[in-house]
Write a structure and sequence with these properties.
- The complex is a heterodimer of chains A (477) and B (109).
- With 477 residues, chain A is of the alpha/beta class.
- Chain A has three domains: 5-213 and 431-438, Aldehyde Dehydrogenase, Chain A, domain 1; 217-408, 3-Layer(aba) Sandwich (Aldehyde Dehydrogenase, Chain A, domain 2); 451-477, no CATH class.
- Chain A is 42% helix and 18% strand.
- Chain A has 17 helices and 17 strands.
- Chain A has a seven-stranded parallel β-sheet, sandwiched between helices. Chain A has a five-stranded parallel β-sheet with strand order 5-4-3-6-7, sandwiched between helices. Chain A has a three-stranded antiparallel β-sheet with strand order 1-2-17, with no helix packed on it.
- Chain A is globular, with a radius of gyration of 25 Å.
- The termini of chain A are far apart.
- By secondary structure, chain B is of the alpha/beta class.
- Helix content of chain B is 37%, strand content 29%.
- Chain B has three helices and four strands.
- Chain B has helices at 23-40, 66-77, 91-100; strands spanning 2-7, 12-21, 53-64, 84-87.
- In chain B, strands 1-2-3-4 form a four-stranded mixed β-sheet.
- In chain B, helix 1 runs parallel beside helix 2 (66-77).
- Chain B is globular.
- The chains are: A alpha/beta (477), B alpha/beta (109).
Chain lengths: 477, 109
């Protein structure tokens, strides 16, 4: 019997380690066969798993969860299937460097309640593609759908010849167990997707981690933008799965001169502008004021359900609630990330002020994540992009789908979006298989002629300055 | 897949394995090894303070599944400390035991 968290952690890791040992003997072809089988099984279960996730968590829209499952399987598979992830992956005769991919070992993957089955499918595919056993920690409110996802993938993997225990799942219901596994010396890497606390725990565990935290996505609509087009894109993104994607729009920022047009278009497209009193009520419901964090009770809920909870009467068919704010920070709770169809709206007196508001929002809990701009002015797009600290600045595109990649642009499709050092991440890239291998470089002898021709004793002479020595270094070249 | 060489005089059981020891093969050899272990554990042959040395010879093995590593662990547990060893492992197989963190425990060479 294994009862204590430490015993459970040891037990899970022992199994994962044996799987890792077996897995590293696989060649590319054997590995790809497993990935293909798991992709097909996951893809074929897309509807069932989406419905299960919706029923269990009560979050989002099941039809949209199907789309997420499709992105996590079909599009992710398409992006990794031809990648070389085993053995020699490149051989550059000019530089004399050969690159060899090695598996990492057991990967501990923490998955969020907002995108449970899609994140599990995605992480399983990229781990198997790189011959790494995966241990999934499911959110306690999504354990059933995640366990079923694992069962389906694991059976397909075993059928295709994968090592026993290459996919395991534990419930994050036991906080202690998650902590034990996270800090276990046999874990090779933690792939953490979730809230700030979780990501911080992953980074503090002592094991290498790729952690992806919250966003607070500002979207600037420039005066040059096609307003009806921009509004329809924003709505399709923010209402997708009831706003659960961390790259979904959180604030819309415009200049006063186009406020009237933007507002009219939002209203025409069935959005409801809250009055100040209603804004107060929704703020109280949606954001926990002490911690300035969103209330889990409204995450992924429909407008109808949120309105009911706030005793608010909105026109029938309203798809999004908009709160006009005049500031950023603790006095304006809706300026923080809220994963629901509630969005903040700012009308700035001029372009400079608008951009400064975007920067403030960006730095309020969403550094390094994503941002959006609607414009038909290249200079403005580039200016905005250089001022914003975001791994992805998506242009004239819904930010949810745009940041995830694969559908509106050529970003690598991923359910784990790197946020750079601003988000305490090591990369700003969309995480994929290539981040889960150790690349060894075999370096053939290729002499640096300049270095070997210069008399190194010259460097010992303090009277020689930089320009003299560099000249000597480059002599006869 | 496995042949046995039992030397009762030297109290040594050598198990020679060949080929690809995948999960299916392991299911079969697991029983064969268990039977053999039962045989040497017979009180007529065994004694508590002077048990058999068990040697797994992997000279002709090119792949091991995790279930094979499990067989090694369970066999090693049945004999006195230091009396189980794995010999003639290919570097690739040696690395596999290393990754599993068991090369010392299983005395892999």
């Amino acid at each position: 019997m294994v009862d204590l968290p430490i015993e459970k952690a040891n037990y899970v890791l022992e199994k994962a380690l044996l799987a890792a040992a077996e897995f590293q003997q696989f060649n590319q072809e054997e590995t790809d066969r497993i990935v293909e089988a798991v992709y097909k099984a996951g893809f074929n279960a897309r509807v069932k798993l989406a419905k299960m996730a919706f029923e269990e968590t009560g979050i989002g829209v099941w039809e949209h969860k199907v789309i997420k499952n499709v992105i996590a399987t079909q599009l992710v598979y398409d992006s990794i299937k031809n990648e070389k992830t085993v053995g020699i992956i490149s051989n550059d005769h000019q530089t004399g460097i050969i690159e060899i991919a090695q598996a990492l070992g057991p990967i501990f993957a923490v998955t969020p309640v907002t995108n449970p089955t899609s994140t599990v499918l995605f992480k399983i595919l990229i781990c198997l593609k790189t011959r790494n056993p995966i241990i999934i920690s499911s959110h306690r409110s999504a354990i059933k759908c995640c366990t079923e996802t694992v069962r389906i993938c694991y059976e397909a993997a075993i059928e295709a010849g994968a090592p026993e225990d290459c996919i395991q799942i534990i419930s994050a219901g036991s906080h202690e167990l998650t902590q034990m596994v996270m800090g276990h010396p046999k874990v090779a890497l933690i792939l953490a997707t979730g809230g700030t606390g979780l990501v911080k725990a992953a980074y503090s565990s002592g094991n290498p981690a790729i952690g992806v935290g919250p966003g607070n996505v500002p979207v600037f609509i420039d005066e040059s933008a096609d307003i009806p087009f921009a509004i329809s894109n924003i709505i399709s993104s923010k209402t997708f799965d009831n706003g659960t994607i961390c790259a979904s729009e959180q604030s819309i920022i415009v200049e006063e001169k186009i406020e009237k047009d933007v507002r009219a278009e939002f209203e025409r497209q069935k959005c409801y502008f809250l009055n100040p009193e209603e804004t107060g009520r929704i703020s109280k419901l949606a954001v926990v004021s002490d911690s300035l964090s969103m209330n889990p009770l409204i995450v992924g809920q429909s407008v109808e359900s949120i309105a009911k909870k706030a005793n608010l009467i909105v026109p029938e068919g309203t798809c999004m609630l908009i709160a006009k704010l005049n500031g950023v920070g603790k006095d304006h709770p809706l300026s923080v990330e809220v994963l629901a169809p509630i969005i903040a709206f700012y009308a700035a007196k001029d372009y400079q002020t608008a951009i400064k508001t975007c920067i403030d929002l960006n730095y309020l809990g969403g550094i390094g994540h994503s941002a959006g701009i609607y414009a038909n002015n290249d200079q403005r797009i580039l200016e905005f992009s250089q001022l914003i600290n975001a791994g992805r600045i998506v242009v004239n595109t819904p930010t949810s789908q745009g940041a995830v990649g694969g559908t509106f642009n050529n970003l690598v499709p991923s359910l784990t979006l790197g946020c750079g050092t601003g988000g305490k991440n090591i990369t700003t890239e969309n995480i994929t298989a290539k981040h889960l291998i150790n690349i060894q470089r075999v370096c053939r002898r290729k002499l640096n002629e300049k270095w070997h021709n210069i008399d190194l004793n010259l460097y010992l002479d303090e009277s020689l300055d930089e320009s003299t020595l560099v000249k000597e270094y480059n002599k006869n070249q | 897949m496995v042949t046995f060489d039992l030397n009762t005089l030297e109290k040594k059981l050598t198990c020679r394995f060949a080929g690809r020891l995948d999960t299916n093969v392991c299911l079969k050899i697991n029983d064969e090894i268990a039977d053999k272990m039962k045989e040497i554990k017979d009180p007529a042959m065994d004694s508590p303070d002077d048990g058999f040395n068990i040697i797994f010879d992997l000279e002709d093995v090119n792949y091991i599944a995790s279930s094979y590593i499990r067989i090694c662990i369970s066999t090693a547990k049945q004999v006195e400390k230091g009396k189980f060893s794995i010999i003639n492992s290919d570097p690739f197989i040696k690395k596999t035991f290393k990754i599993a963190g068991l090369d010392e425990l299983l005395n892999v060479s």
